[in-house]
Every structure is written in structure tokens, then in C-alpha cells.
Amino acid sequence: MPxxxxxxxxxxxLTLAALTVPPAHADEGDPVAVTVNxxxxxxxxPETGIGTNHAIWDSRLGSDETAxxxxxxxxxxxxxxxxxxxxxxxxxxxxxxxxxxxxxTDFDTFMRGVRRTGAxxxxxxxxxxxxxxxxxAWVRHANVTKGYGVKYWEIGNENYGNGRYGTAxxxxxxxxxxxxxxxxxxxxxxxxxxxxxxxxxxxxxxxTPANWPxxxxxxxxxxxxxxxxxxxxxxxxxxxxLHWYPGAxxxxxxxxxxxxxxxxxxxxYAGPGSERIGIAMTEFNTGSSSNGTNTQPGAxxxxxAYATLLANGVFTVDWWNVRNGIGNVTQVEGHTDYxxxxxxxxxxxxxxxxxxxxxxxxxxxxxxxxxMVSRFARPGDRFIRAATDQEKVTAHxxxxxxxxxxxxxxxxxxxxxxxxxxxxSGFSPASGAPTVLTHxxxxxxxxxxxxxxxxxxxxxxxxxxxxxxxxxxxxTGLPGAPGQPAASGVTDRAATISWPAASxxxxxxxxxxxxxxxxxxxxxxxxTTGTSLTVGNLKPGTRHTVNVIARDGGGGTSSPSAPLxxxxxTPASAPCSVRLTKQSDWxxxxxxxxxxTNHGAxxxxxxxxxxxxxxxxxxxSGWSAVxxxxxxxxxxxxxxxxxSLPTGASATIGFVGNYSGPNVLPSVFTLNGTVCTTR
Length: 679
Prior knowledge:
InterPro entries: CBD2, CBM2/CBM3_carb-bd_dom_sf, CBM2_carb-bd_dom_sf, FN3_dom, FN3_sf, GH, Glyco_hydro_b, Ig-like_fold. By secondary structure, this protein is α/β, with parallel strands linked by helices.
């Protein structure tokens, strides 16, 4: 992770006029179809959604200029005392042995800036060189003595980087550096800290799916870091902590599976009541200095990632860092990229003095990206499904609490403008020009105008565009949204969906409709006058997301319920069964074993078929059978020694699976064309 020590420079707040630098030439691409579906609700926009990191080595941490810039960007959460410094920092005497502590960066100064910004704080307690007693004293100082009301407290930072898996960057003075030892201390920290203030929320560090050292099991450990930490400390925590530096600008597609796998681990290992545990992305940066850390490509990736993470239910995404310092200097899309992972310039220079950043506090492009996201998605809004048919253009949408709607469009092409046509489902925009917010390559502000229409416009290259719409008619007297749905009786092809009743509006509610999300399109799969419905004809082994809508006697419809996601299984009884187990994992590949059992008539010669759930998965090699792959489809044919499977007999085969994103395992297998039970 970037941990650059800042030099001191004079603090100058620049007031910059909007400046747009158009490309020398922009082709116009084929029209892009954008679909926005107001019936397909996702997560609500949280109060703490847009955040960033402060660091005690930044001498401007406590300045009014910094707080005012962060407030203008819409920052709602500020994390302290700064990455790996958290595990060497002692709050009471404001020291970090082995590191640099800048003046005017103590906790009380940080809190003054938090209040001026209008954000909530998140504090990382020292696990590496600290104690539970020290952390509890910090809670007492913050919330009892000072009355700051600090709600969110992390226990350590990236503590899996303590050398347990062979690489060490995180300070850890404990003789035992295992996940079990970390988890035992999380329990002790939580007990001590909540004894001072029972209202606080405690967070534990996890590894991020498909990011090192996720999936690794060290010698002597009972499982992976996440499995051990959740199993031991799950009952004592309120949220888990992920960090993500994807290193490329096109990894947003990984997010839904990343969050799904994290929730799956929480549900499996954290014990009863684990649904209360939230997910926080307390460090995020594109991590790609070669592709534009602080220029427009990085900004576009930042906006896309923030919107996607929040839409998937992460309660805060925190940029690394407010200021970080100059790094590898390159030219990216016509502008100097200083390799700086900060939002604001530190005014630092390369070691030879040959290149210097702009004046201190000059916003870099990602600053405007986060400002755009904060204006697009406000606390109280709810994300809804949106999609495009052009890979260079990304769409996000929210339904506003006041009945309006906002659409964020991202054009990542460096040389092509795209005309877009927007189709709205479940929402009718008002006539007249909407409010339009735009940020283009090289611009030093977001421009605002009232131009064009609700259903179309042209997106400049390397641009962010937000369209804010009012409904065509006032939304009054409609039913309230149904309560959070739940699933029960889930089989391979059916599930029973239940929900709390909606409140009636001006007219009685006459029925409820259940809508299945299929990308950005919803399909109504049933309706009922009650508050429970069994739906069928579902695809086995598949993740399904549904919303429930109430309809009144005049045809008026409610907003959709919160989403419910559940996964169908495979047949409970079948003439064959399959068990897939991981034998070992190295965070980019694994050794898998597949046990095939025949429960039907004797078989002489067999073929097993399955598909990789994601494009970033592939077959490395296989043994004890003949393995082939075509696209995502894998076919395994018996070899000469194991083709005979009498009733009750089993055959075990093995393979190496490769992955470069979250590793969702195959779950549906067919043997000689018959779907097997997956055990």
C-alpha cells in the first residue's frame, strides 16, 4: 500500500475556475442503449458512504483548508490515524515509534477537522504494538471525556501482513502472529472498549476475496485468515474491514462476487446473528500509477468502483489518501500523472527536484470523481439497476428520496464520444431540461447546466456525466414499500418469498408482485394478495435477486422493497452426486478434487460437464480423466481405468483451477447429461 512520507510546504488554497481541455479529435461512436430500471432496487445510499483516509504524517491534516475541501467533495467519513501507522501509533502521547508524526495531527485536532468537514470519524486502534487497555482508554477519552461520539473502531490494519504468510509490512509484536491470536485479541479489545461505551461498533480485519493472502492457510492454522477470525471473533464484531487496490482500471466487475463471497464467509463462520455484520472498504485506490493514479482514467475508475461497492451494500468506501506525495511521474491522456495516491496535491517534488506537483491542496482528478459520486448518490437515496450495451460506457442510477432519479454515466474511451439513449422502466421523467453535471479530461471543476432531455445526450471522451431528473407527476397517495423479503424452502428450482406488509396509501393494497432481476431488466415471476409467495421455474445453482412491489386498487405501485438475494441448489435426489473440494489455494489458483458418485444403474463410460461461473476462471490442468475447456465450459471424460461406475461406486478426479478475480466455485454438474446433486 502507498505510504509516502510528506514534506512540509506552505498551505495555499487555490480557487480554480472550470477548465475543460477537449481531446484533439473525438470520433463519434455508435449509439449506446442505456437501461435504467426503477423496479430493481439495490442497496440504500449510506450516511457514511463517501470517505477518505487521514494520516498523522500529513502536516495539513488539521487545517481548515483541508476540511473545507473535503466538505466540498461530500466526504462523510474520515479514517485515522493512517494505514499501517495505526499499528505503531500511541494516541495518548501522540507518538509512532519508527515513523514520522507531523505537528498538529493529534486526535483532538483530527476531530476538530472531522466536525468542520461534517463527517463521521473512524478510528483504527493499535493492535500491532498496542493493548486492549490502551484502546479502551482511547474510547474513554473520545466518547466519555470529550463527548465526540466516535462510533466506528477498527482493531488493527492489514494485520495479515505481519509475516504469517511470508511477507511482512505490518508491525506486530505478538509472538504468535496467527489469525487465531489476532481473533483472540479482537475479542479482548471488543470487551474492553464496549465496557467503556456499549454503543460503539467494532471492526475486524479480513482479507479481500482473490487478493493476497486470501485463500492461503498457513502451517498450524485451522483455516484461512477469514475463516479463523470470523469463527473466533464473529460474535464480538459489528463490521468487517476490506482493502482493495485492484491495480487495473477495469476490475469493477469483480465487486458483486467480492462482496457476495465476503457475506458468504460471514454467514458460514460468524455464528448466529451474523446478518448484523456490515462490510467497510476502509482503504481503496486504483493502485495503478501507470494507468493514471491522479489523472482522469483513475478518476473514472474511482467513480465506477465507489458506485458499485455502495450499490452492493458496503457502508463506507474510503480513498487512500487525502495527500500522499509524488511517485512515478508519467504522461496519461495528455496530462501529467504524478503517481500520487492522494486526492489533493502535497506540493512535493521528485528527489532530484526535476518535477514538482501543483501547489498544495490542488485537487487531483479523483477528487472530482468522488465529488461527483457524492452529488449523484446522496444519503437516503437507493441504488437501482442500470446497464449499457457498450463496454466503454458504464451506467449507475439512484432513486431519490424525493421521488426523483439520478443517472451517472461514465465514458472511459479516450478518443470517442458516445451518443446515449436512455430507457426508463418504472419511472416517467418530467419534460424539460434536466440538471446535468459534467466532468471531462483535465477539467478543474464539475460544471452544472440545464440542457438537453431526459432520454438522450452525447458523452465526451473520458467523462463523468450525472443527469438529475424529476418525475413527470407528483408521487402522492401511493403504497409504502414492502418490508425486507426473506427466502425459505429454497430448492433447486423453487423458493418461498415472504415479506412484511406495506403500508397502504390513499387506496387499499390489492396485491403484491414479485420481480426477478435479470441484469437491468426485471421479470415479474408471480403475484399474490398475501405476503408470501412460492416461485418456481428457477435455474439451479444460480444466484437470484428479487424485489417485491405493492399495487393498490387504482393501479398505483409502491417503490420496490429492498433486494433479496438467494442461491438455488441442485436436486435433493438424483442418480448421481458430486462433491468439489479445494485441496490448496494460493490466491490466484487452487487444486480441486471432484468426487463423482453413481446412485443409479451401473455406468460404463461417463462424461462430466460444468461451467466456470466467471470469465476470469480457467482450467490449468487436470488428471485421472481427459479434461478439455471451450469458453467457460469444461468437459471431463473418463480415462481407461475409471470408466466403470457400478451403483454406489465413486471416482475421484483432480484439477488446477486458475482465477484472477473472486473465485466463485462451480456448483452445477451434469453426468451423462443428468444434473447431479452437489454435496
